[in-house]
C-alpha cells in the first residue's frame, strides 16, 4: 500500500472565502456543519492558515465522545495558552480571577480568586462573564471549538453567551456534525440569529461532486489526472465524502488497475478500508490500534499499552498512519469513523476483556476518570462496578456545577433495560435533586415525567421526585402553572415527610406567583410555618421565615419591617445567613415596587454583603435587575437602556429572572414612541402568559401596554387589556401592585365611556391600599382620582388631584410619573381657562425631553400648538450647519427603526408633510441617499 500525503483543500473555494472573511471581521459567530468525514476540520485549518502570522490568537478546543466532569472543558482547553497575550493582572477585569481554579496555567497572570459561590447558577453567571472578559483582554482572536455535537449543555450555553454579545475582537468558530438534513435547529440555538454588529454565518458542507473527487484523488496520488471511469467509480462508491475518498485511495494497491476499487471491498463502508489497513499491521500494532478503539478517546502510551496487554506496536501503528499523535502526548484515531470501524471488527469476547483491562488501568490513576470507568464497566458487563462508578461520576459532576453531565450519566443508567430494579429508586431521586439545582430543563422535565410514569417509586419517593419536577417547571422552564400543579400533588404524597412538605408549601405561599388569592397564599404560608415547627432544622426554619418576611413586604404589610427585623442576620451558621441574604434581596425588590427607595438601598447593601459572605451571590443578580427598575422609576435614565440590555443578556437560559429588565426596556421604548419594540418587551416581561408569570411585573407591563394603546388611539384594545389586568389584580387581591396599572386602567375605562366602572375601580383601589405601607400606591390613587375627575369634566377637582399626585411622586421621587401628573394638572387648568397653564405645559415638555421621553415631550408641544402658543425647539450646536437638530435626531431615530413617515408623524404629533421635510433634511445632512442607510444618532 502506497504512502499518500494529505492533500490541500479541494472543492471548498466559496466556503473557505466565507469562513476566512468571518474570521477576519470580528465579532463573528460561525458554525461549520456537515456529516461525518465531510471535511469540517480541514476547512477550518485551511482558513486559519490564511490568517497573517501573529495577526490574532488562535485558540483551539475539542469536545469528546466521553467526557469527564470538567465544566466548559473545551473552552478552558482553548484558553490555556493565552498568557503571552494578556495585560498585567492589575489591568484585567477582577472577575477573571474566577478562572484561577480552572486555568492553573494562567494563575500567575490572573487577578486574585473571588470567594467561591454556593449557588451553581451564580457561579455559572460569574464564570461566563470571566471567560468573556478574558477573551476581550486577549484582543483579536479566533476561538475554534471542534465537534460541538459532543459538547455538554454547559459548553453550549457558554458559547451561546459568548456569541450573543462577543468581545469586539473575537470570532467564534464551531464545527458540528449534522447527521440529518431535516434537523433545522442550530446546536447553539439563538446564537445564529442575526445579532447587531456581529457577523453570524452557517457554513454547510455538502459532498464533493465528481470533478472535485477526481481532483482530490489526483492530489492524494500525486497524479496530474486519472481515468474518467476510475473517478466516476470512486465518486459512486464514496458518495463524495472527502474522508472516505481519502481512506479508499490510501487503501489502493495500484490505481492503474481497472478493478482496483472493486478489490478494496465495499468502498462505501469505511470498515473495509480500515480492515485493509489493519491487515498490513503486525499483531502488536493491531493490538495497539484495537486498544485505542476500545478507549475511544486519545490516550497516553502507558494506558494504550495497558489495554493492549503488551508494550510493542504503537510506534508501528503511528508510522502506518492508522493512529495519529494528538496534543499532550496522546494517541488515537484521526476520525471517529475509523475508531468505530476498528471497534466493530473486534470479536465480542476480546472487546469485553479489553474493557476490563481499561477499567483496571483507569482505576489505578490518582484521579480516576469516573465517566470512562462507568462506560468501560458497562461494556465489560460488570453491573456492580457500572452502578458504583456511574453514581460517583454523577455526584462528582454535580459537585463541580456540571449538572448537565450529572443528568446525562443518570439518564443513561435509568434508560438501560438491564438496570436492576432495586437501583432505580436512588438514581431517580438523585436525578430529581440534581435537576432542581441545574439550569437546563427540557430533557430533565421529560426524564422526570418518564420516571413518575414508571411504577417503581414508593409514595414518599414519588413525592420528592414530583416536588423537584415542580421546582424545575416553575423556575428553569418558566411554566409556573404546570410547576405549581405538580407541587400540589407532591404535597399530598409527602404527608409523612414534613420537612420536604414545608418547603413545598413555603414555595407555593409566595403571592407574586400563581392565580390564587392572597388569602390562599396566607393559608399556605401558615401550613409551612406549622410544619417547620415540627422539624429540627435551623436552615429550614430560616428559609420559611425568609419567605414570611418576603410575603409581608410584598403586600405592603404594616408589620413587614418588624418581621424582617427578626431574620437571623447574625447567626453563626452560613446556611442560615444565606437564607437571610435571599430574603433581603426579595425585600429590596418589594420596596422598589412600594416606592420606598431609601429603605430599598439599605436592604440592597446588606443583602449584597450577606450574599458575598455566604457564597449566595446569585440573589445579587436579582438585586441588579430590581435596581434597573428602581433607576427607571427614580429618573436615572442616562445609559439605562444599555445597562438593562447588558443584564438581560446574562439571563438567556433563565429569562424569567430578568423580567424587570424587559419591563424597563418596554417603558423606555414607550416613552420614546417605539411602539413595536415596547409591545415586544412588555410581552417578554410577562404578558405572553400573564397567569404564569411574575404578577407585580405583569401588572406594571399591562399598565404600560394600556398607555401604548391609548397613545395610538386603539381604545378598544386598551379597554380589553384594562379589563383583563384589573381582573387579575382583583383576583389576587394585592392592590399595592396596582400603582402602575390603576391610573391607566381608569383612563381606558373613561375613554370607552365606562365612567362608572372607572369610579368603582378607584373606590376599590382606595379600599385595597388603605393601611398599607406603599407610598407609590397612594400617589397613584391621587393620579387615578385625577383621571376620573377629568373624565367627569370636574376640572377643578382634577387639577387638585393631579397636583397632589405630582407632589407625592416628587417626594418619592418618581420624576417621570410626577411630570405625567403635572401634565394632567396643566391640562385641567387649561380647561378651566387658566392663562398660566401654557407655560406649565412648555416647562413639562422640557422636563420630558431632559429625561429622554421624546414622545411625551412631543405630545406637550402638540398641546401648545393646538392653543396657538409658540413652541421653541432645542437645536443643534451653532456654527455646525451639518449637525442634526433635536427634532431631526428624533426623526432619524425613528427612520433607523424602520418607521414610515405616517408612523413617525403619529409618534411626534406632526403632519406627514412635515416629517417628509425632516427626513429629506436628515438624509442631506448625513450625506445619505436612502433612508435604509440611516443609523440611530448617538
UniProtKB/TrEMBL annotation:
Record's keyword annotation contains ATP-binding: yes
Tell me the InterPro entries matching this sequence: AAA_16, P-loop_NTPase, Sig_transdc_resp-reg_C-effctor, TPR-like_helical_dom_sf, TPR_rpt, Tscrpt_reg_LuxR_C, WH-like_DNA-bd_sf
The protein's GO terms of the molecular function aspect are: adenylate cyclase activity; ATP binding; DNA binding
Question: What sequence ranges are listed for the domain HTH luxR-type?
Answer: 877-938
Q: Where are the TPR repeats?
A: 659-692
| Key words, A-Z | ATP-binding, Nucleotide-binding, TPR repeat
Q: Which GO terms describe its biological process?
A: regulation of DNA-templated transcription
Q: Which Gene3D superfamilies match?
A: Winged helix-like DNA-binding domain superfamily/Winged helix DNA-binding domain
Superkingdom of origin: Bacteria
Q: Which GO terms describe its cellular component?
A: cytoplasm
Quote the protein name from its UniProt record. Answer: LuxR family transcriptional regulator
User: Lineage of the source organism?
Assistant: Bacteria, Bacillati, Actinomycetota, Actinomycetes, Streptosporangiales
